[in-house]
Amino acid sequence: MPSQRTTVTMAHEALAAEDDGRSCRDIPDAACKAQPQNFMRHSIALGLSKSADGLADPKLVLSWLMTHLGAPAALVGLLVPIREAGSLLPQLFTAARIRALQQRKWAWSAAALGQGIGGAIICLAALTLQGALAGVVILAGLTLLALSRSVASVAYKDVLGKTIDKGQRGTVTGVAGSWSAIVVIVFALVLVAFSDNRAVIVTSALALAALGWIMAGVVFAGLTEEKGATEGGRNSFSEALANLRYLREDRQLARFILARGLLTSTALAPPYLVVLASGDSGAALQGLGALVLASSLAALVSSYVWGRLADRSSRQVLILTGLSGAFAMALTLGFAALGLTDTLWAMPLALFVLMIAHQGVRLGRSTYLIDMVGPDLRAVYTAIANTVIGIILLASGVFGALAALYGAGATLALFAVMAVAGAVTAYGLKELGDGEQA
């Protein structure tokens, strides 16, 4: 047992610990002592969850699967809105119930199990169904997965804030993102090498994703989490609406949500990039492996770096990612203008740059929100931000109408403008450093 602990401690120090001998700044002594073990459990559990996310990516993998099974295009178009809005909208109404738990790790573990069940439903549909019925069942599984994820999102930020000290939170998520990206890269390479067996590979990946979520829940349940306050644990519609007062009272929260809302353009853009690349031929679906590879390589090369940068200044990460996201979309439009969209390298390269930006947005927004508020309001602020963004994403169907009227290029141009506006808005956020809160 001592040798195992030493190994864990050494791994933690190699990945995250500072060399200046500082003690923990904003977590209790007991949590500080357990931090090496908790750091590794966070890295493993979150990495398993992120790996499953990549294997069952709605923007690429599930879109291809539903098309392969003959599901109507209208159902395919619901994948991203259900996945994103379903993950965010319920959070304002679940935060109080999660708050009533003294140890919120159990909420995350249960949510991971729910995601595993949702993934299993999708896998079974892929194995046994065809056409519209397959599409409906896949969307049902995705709905369960998204709703479970909404619980996990609120619970995770709260548990992370209680168990990992400020200055290492971005790093632990970056480590998880980096190793999980390797898993998805292997998946993409297999797709490229054995493209004739694409359906079997995708179905097997979905089964592994379901197993990965379940394993993540088991690992996360082993965290050492101190019992926390449970005041404000009521869960009602009026309580949820009352929480919205923080948008008026805290201008930094309102500005942060505005910046995050504008930066959703990095999440919404990939499907339109694929549309621009494939045109009427649907050729992009034949390059599924190359697109997945580009996306996963972006996560691998950027997650750890973004995480370390976020620990220094999550505000600057949001600024940089907004600008880099806009550059990626401009690059896509440039390739289209030059007639390079049907080449082997152009669209994967543009997607690679875009997904680097998106990884930074995810890490930057998460770290900034955790650092800007104390533990008493962390879950509430997370729920407010995610619910508002969920409404924005639910309304994102308007971009589909815009694409139908003016083309995918015009939609990407609008997203580029949004990304720049997000960077400008983030510039006005308060810098959080040296343990300071907004």
Describe the structure.
By secondary structure, this protein is mainly α. The chain has a single domain, classed as Growth Hormone, Chain: A, CATH 1.20.1250. The model has no long low-confidence stretch (mean pLDDT 82).
Blueprint of the fold:
Blueprint: H1 2-15, H2 29-33, H3 35-55, H4 58-68, H5 73-76, H6 79-88, H7 91-99, H8 105-128, H9 131-163, H10 169-193, H11 198-221, H12 237-243, H13 245-249, H14 251-263, H15 265-278, H16 288-337, H17 346-372, H18 378-394, H19 397-406, H20 408-427
Distance from N terminus to C terminus (CA atoms, Å) equals 42 Å
Tally of individual domains: 1
Sheet/helix structural class? mainly alpha
Q: What is the H/E order?
A: HHHHHHHHHHHHHHHHHHHH
Shape: globular
The CATH H-level homologous superfamily: MFS general substrate transporter like domains
Largest sheet: none
Give helix % range.
over 70%
Q: Please give the CATH architecture.
A: Up-down Bundle
Rounded mean pLDDT is 82
The strand count comes to 0
CATH class: Mainly Alpha
Please give the radius of gyration in angstroms: 21 Å
Count of discrete alpha- or pi-helical segments spanning 4 or more residues? 20
* Subunit arrangement of the protein: single chain
Task: Assess the beta-strand content as a share of residues.
Answer: under 5%
- Named CATH topology: Growth Hormone, Chain: A
